Amino acid sequence: MKHIDPEDALNALVELVADDLLACNRAIVARMDSPVELIPQLAAHIVAAGGKRLRPLLTLAAARMCGYSGLRHVNLAACVEFIHTATLLHDDVVDESLLRRGLASANAVFGNKASVLVGDFLFARAFQLMVEDGSLRVLEILSRAAATIAEGEVLQLVTQNDLSTTEERYLDVIKGKTAALFAAACQVGAVVAARPDAEEVALAEYGMNLGIAFQLVDDALDYSADQATLGKTVGDDFREGKITLPVLAAYAAGDEDERSFWRRTVETSEQVADDLDHAMLLIVRRNAIQATLDRAATFAAAAKASLEVFPDSAYRRALRSVADYTVCRAR
Amino acid sequence: MKHIDPEDALNALVELVADDLLACNRAIVARMDSPVELIPQLAAHIVAAGGKRLRPLLTLAAARMCGYSGLRHVNLAACVEFIHTATLLHDDVVDESLLRRGLASANAVFGNKASVLVGDFLFARAFQLMVEDGSLRVLEILSRAAATIAEGEVLQLVTQNDLSTTEERYLDVIKGKTAALFAAACQVGAVVAARPDAEEVALAEYGMNLGIAFQLVDDALDYSADQATLGKTVGDDFREGKITLPVLAAYAAGDEDERSFWRRTVETSEQVADDLDHAMLLIVRRNAIQATLDRAATFAAAAKASLEVFPDSAYRRALRSVADYTVCRAR
């Protein structure tokens, strides 16, 4: 694959739906409001303070690619971002994270209690927005996605510290916790455009494959020395004993000494100062980052193939580029 | 008011909708299932292990009082219980409670992480059930209630440890965190029966007033020596610095020594061994339990009055008795 600047790949999409994205950001700010002031304060900390808006961008672009000319997709893209934000707030509580997107996490600033409750509020507000939109089909897709996300997160909890987790089960986790919302975000684009089932399915498959690729790359980056050089956090998954493909691949390929290291650090969580460095060394030695990125590239290719049912357009090209972006941001 | 055995008052309602309640309990168990086994395990701990099913009972009885003869209300009653259960799971995490209904709370047994995530699952599942039902009006009512619950809970967090909280603001908290779901549970009964707006409004008002009365009594019981005698937990609100009417009334009526006691224990949370006993003594001295129960009785009477638009029936009598039950359980 030729080198693509990841920022360029995403920017093409952002430029293409620039007006829709502005409208979506306005809807996000307007609809996270509440007479209970702590809610917009805390929500602003996480919703308004950054993030790439990747999931709402998918809804916006998918709808336009399907020829939709109305504005319903704007509020539905905001719904998707609210559901995502709610899960981030709850994830940070669950992971006891102190950082999110390089800033202090909401739970670190406002406390766990407020983060749980504002997550609940955003989740409920997302459903209110969907009800205003009035499509039971959209409600069906996004309520199923919300349930699947929670199932994926619980499954992740169950597999934590368990090196006997199979790759299949790991894929179930990331399909649930990440890819289900990508799939729903894309599918909704076809629904508002009233496209036939085959196009709904194609967009859902695109989003599912894209989401899996995205999470695989995320999981690889968590052990990437390059990320450490860039000043980004690495090793969160390692410290939490999360079972991800880099660890499973390094463990499977490791000798007895290496396996014993992984058992101590990941299964029993007995970690000392240099363990993360050693883990990263073993992961490089066993080619486990590359193995993970190769898997991601396969899913990204599948995502692009899912778009073949649509005629060529600037939107389709941009969505194909997003698949490249997902993989290239790791290089 | 004449003495009514609280159990009798609730039992009349339970007997009247016995078949519906059985069907609702079956729906609850069937629909909290998931291939991720920890979800039904944890949910069973809280959903199946007790509780009076008061909220779903309200939906069932309201629908029947409105002449509804179908079965949609059964699944919608299960939705109401799922939303309630999700908020209980999140509440216990927020409050760091170790007990729920006299048993170890889910967070104490399964951990905070699983409780947050299974709460999210039940919430999403509730919306899936509503989507299956297919009424946008029901979805509107229950998604608004869900947002209002979260607002009430956040407002409670904001008023915690703050003795300058007004009684009006305290009422806003309990309307949100408790009464909004009672109101929605009742209103949904009129919706499935396709009754005119006036009856929807009347049932929503009944539920709102009932819910306020219910929470006022709960807040009184948390300082009740009788409860302590019965082996039930008292003093949770006190220990958490929650601002409830018994405290506000005792603080308002207290002398300078008493106010200084409340400021130390509730505002700065500096509590020592005998403080709860002393708080209960001051609350009795200032007649604050009685003042709270009197307020509850007023709301219970308003709840009963809201039912006047409906013709007399066994269901209406049972719903009136529930209002009595709410108040009598404190006596």
UniProtKB/TrEMBL annotation, chains A, B:
It catalyses: 5 isopentenyl diphosphate + (2E,6E)-farnesyl diphosphate = all-trans-octaprenyl diphosphate + 5 diphosphate. Supplies octaprenyl diphosphate, the precursor for the side chain of the isoprenoid quinones ubiquinone and menaquinone. This is Octaprenyl diphosphate synthase. PROSITE patterns: POLYPRENYL_SYNTHASE_1. One of its GO terms (molecular function) is all-trans-octaprenyl-diphosphate synthase activity. InterPro entries: Isoprenoid_synthase_dom_sf (IPR008949), Polyprenyl_synt (IPR000092), Polyprenyl_synt_CS (IPR033749). PANTHER family: ALL TRANS-POLYPRENYL-DIPHOSPHATE SYNTHASE PDSS1 (PTHR12001:SF69), GERANYLGERANYL PYROPHOSPHATE SYNTHASE (PTHR12001). Its EC number is 2.5.1.90. Keywords: Magnesium, Metal-binding, Transferase. Signal peptide: none annotated. It comes from the Bacteria. It comes from Limobrevibacterium gyesilva. Its cofactor is Mg(2+). Belongs to the FPP/GGPP synthase family. It holds the Pfam family polyprenyl_synt. GO terms for biological process: isoprenoid biosynthetic process. It is an enzyme of class 2 (transferase).
